[in-house]
Specification:
Elements (H helix, E strand, L loop, with lengths): L9 H9 L8 E5 L12 E2 L9 E2 L3 E4 L13 E8 L14 E5 L11 E4 L3 E5 L2 E4 L9 E2 L10 E3 L7 H9 L4 E5 L3 E7 L3 E2 L10 E2 L2 H11 L3 E8 L3 H14 L2 E5 L10 H6 L4 E6 L3 E2 L5 E5 L2 E6 L3 H20 L9 E6 L3 E2 L5 E11 L2 E6 L7 H5 L3 E5 L5 E2 L4 E6 L1
Parallel strand pairs: 5-6, 13-16, 13-17, 14-15, 17-21, 19-24, 22-25
Antiparallel strand pairs: 1-12, 2-11, 3-10, 4-6, 4-7, 5-9, 8-9, 18-20, 20-21, 22-28, 23-27, 24-25, 24-26, 26-28
Helix pairs in contact: 1-6, 3-6
Length: 410
């Protein structure tokens, strides 16, 4: 087992764990209403063309483009009306030489026509004839069959994270039952004699369990299914049994607290005994969160997160989210948005450690400013008040006030 404080970078830690992770094989079919933020379990092909019929993109008149060539306000083209195509109905008219048919936006283009003249570029002479004052090219203002998607086209590869616009695309071609990778089941075990559930009144020396709730929400956001296990006391055998039971039913285990240096700390040893190869990383060059544990127990990832809420959330997003996406086989995981802002005050750091500092953003007359929130990592409202995180690179000894910095939003 790696000794504590034989630290490696966050990138190295993720790479070390990633070598051991394999895709989940469980597949389920969900409806479109349930498919948002799910990951496709198979390549999805279009069963049809989209659109399935030629459509007008404008209100106007379907024509033969050649009949409008040379038309102008001084010398318009005169066309006879042969009918109208009602919305939601197949065209029952045909456009012949010197004719036009009234069409509406989204309606079918009748046979014989190959363009649409916008209504603004026409004038009605009477109920049977219009004049066209601007020529159109073949295909102008028309969506041809398959212009969006053709039958047999690959809509999404396996491993695609489904977004709102993707669901619209699936609806458009009639795919309403979607094969997706089952959500990874993530067991969460809080530890500590001093920790009580959030619905209890803490006695002197006790604290409510914060991390189970914040981590559960982060798991849902990353595409997993949280399985809170409750709180384990500081007893090695009880912790081990609860962890073993959790791994029997889950795809991943997160243990909150117990990863700091302490004579009462049993987490690293307990994790090492859960299964091979055991602890892969114990100590990462980040602050907060240096004593984090990344492990693998018989093919299932196990994380020992620091007990302090700020550290827990930062470490989770650095390591657990990428692992969940890898289990899902996700090829396009959603990126957290980034913004540029000017730093409001100096931020000190130590070279050799990546620092993550919560900040809130303030829009001023001269632009967006990032105000660091300096607080101990056991204060959850440090994160509550923040809009995102400022990262101080590994090789820098700090950042200066008025520097332009990148903020990773929550």
């Amino acid at each position: 087992m790696p000794e504590l404080f034989q630290v490696i970078t966050a990138t190295q830690a993720n790479e070390r764990l990633a070598q051991h992770l394999t895709l989940l094989q469980r597949v389920e079919h969900v409806s479109l209403a349930e498919a948002l933020d799910r990951v496709t379990a198979a390549e999805l092909l279009s069963p049809t063309n989209l659109p399935t019929f030629p459509r007008s993109t404008m209100d106007g008149f379907a024509v033969r483009a050649a009949d409008t060539y040379g038309a102008s306000e001084g010398l318009p083209a005169y066309l006879n009306l042969c009918g109208e195509v009602p919305m939601g109905r197949a065209a029952d008219v045909q456009v012949r030489l010197g004719e036009a048919a009234r069409v509406h936006t989204g309606g079918m283009i009748p046979p014989g026509s190959d363009a649409v003249v916008m209504i603004e570029n026409t004038q009605a002479l009477d109920e049977q004839m219009i004049e066209v004052v601007r020529p159109v090219a073949m295909g102008e203002n028309v969506l041809p069959v398959g212009d969006d998607v053709r039958q047999g086209d690959v809509l999404f590869p396996r491993g695609h994270w489904l977004r709102p616009q993707d669901l619209g695309g699936l609806a458009g071609v009639g795919l309403t039952s979607i094969p997706v990778v089952a959500r990874p089941r993530v067991a969460i075990l809080a530890t500590g004699d001093e920790v009580v559930s959030a619905d209890r009144e803490p006695a002197a020396g006790q604290i409510r369990d914060i991390n189970t709730h914040s981590v559960s929400a982060l798991i849902r956001r990353a595409g997993g299914e949280p399985l809170p296990l409750g709180i384990a006391p500081d007893d090695a055998e009880t912790m081990r049994q609860m962890a073993c039971d959790a791994l029997a039913d889950a795809d991943m285990l997160i243990i909150s607290a117990g990863s700091s240096v302490s004579t009462r700390d049993m987490t690293a040893q307990m994790i090492a005994e859960l299964g091979a190869p055991g602890v892969l990383v114990h100590g990462v060059s980040i602050r907060p969160g240096k004593p984090s544990i990344l492990a693998l127990a018989d093919g299932k990832p196990v994380f020992g997160l620091p007990g302090n809420p700020v550290s827990t959330m930062i470490v989770y997003q650095l390591f657990v989210t990428p692992a969940l996406h890898q289990l899902l086989g996700c090829t396009n995981p959603p990126a957290r948005p980034l913004v540029q802002a000017r730093l409001a005050q100096n931020v000190a750091s130590r070279s050799g450690s990546e620092d993550f500092v919560p900040v809130y953003l303030e829009q001023r007359d001269d632009g967006l400013w990032a105000i660091p929130i300096f607080g101990k990592s056991n204060l959850i409202y440090t994160m509550v008040r923040a809009d995102g995180l400022l990262q101080v690179p590994l090789d820098q000894a700090g950042l200066y006030a008025e520097d332009m910095v990148t903020i990773r939003l929550f």
